[in-house]
Amino acid sequence: LLEGILCTLDACDIITCRRTCKALRDIVDASLPIRYNIALAARGMRDGSNSSVTLAEKLEKLERYELAWRELAWKESLHWDFPSPCQHVYTADGYLLTVNVAGVVKVVRLPSPLRGVTHEEYEWAAPVGFLEGQGTVLLDPRHNLVAFLSATDDE
């Protein structure tokens, strides 16, 4: 029952509760969902949507990811040439989006073996007129959304 209640709290409140008594400390330390939520919050991350991976595996990946950053010990690197000349560069949630002066949009999903993320690339043409004015791009990979916004001269 206490574990269920603690799971509804944010990480800061859980840590505060953990400090109040040995019984709560033991519950927090033994609870995989609580430890995972604290680990995510400590790293400024949020849970992905991969339900085929167990919570124990997610926590293990998160800890390996943290260790690799702490020790600067990555297993591989990626070399990617930016389109030249590149007019716009945007990043969001592990994706990199570029727009070159010819209007070619390229989106690259940056791989991470530690997080189980594979490399993907997509390419298409920017909307007509996008490069002519002051435009920007909104990138939301969680919803497979790329929005091109341009200012209008409405008075």
Can you characterise this structure?
- By secondary structure, the protein is of the alpha+beta class.
- The protein has helices at residues 2-7, 11-18, 22-30, 32-42, 55-71; strands spanning 86-92, 95-100, 104-109, 120-125, 135-140, 145-150.
- The longest helix has 17 residues, at 55-71.
- It starts with a helix and ends in a 5-residue tail after the last strand.
- The mean pLDDT is 84.
Compact summary:
The protein is of the alpha+beta class.
Radius of gyration: 21 Å
Number of helices: 5
> What ranges have pLDDT less than 50 throughout 5 or more consecutive residues?
none
Q: Which descriptor suits the 3D outline? A: elongated
Could you report the average pLDDT, rounded to the nearest whole number?
84
Query: What is the helix fraction of residues, given as a range?
Result: 25-40%
Strand neighbour order, sheet with most strands = 1-2-3-4
Biggest sheet overview: 4 strands, antiparallel
Order of helices and strands: HHHHHEEEEEE
**Proportion in β-strands:** 15-25%
Distance between the termini: 60 Å
Please identify the structural class as seen in this structure.
alpha+beta
DSSP strand count: 6
Write the layout of secondary structure elements.
Blueprint: H1 2-7, H2 11-18, H3 22-30, H4 32-42, H5 55-71, E1 86-92, E2 95-100, E3 104-109, E4 120-125, E5 135-140, E6 145-150
Antiparallel strand pairs: 1-2, 2-3, 3-4, 5-6
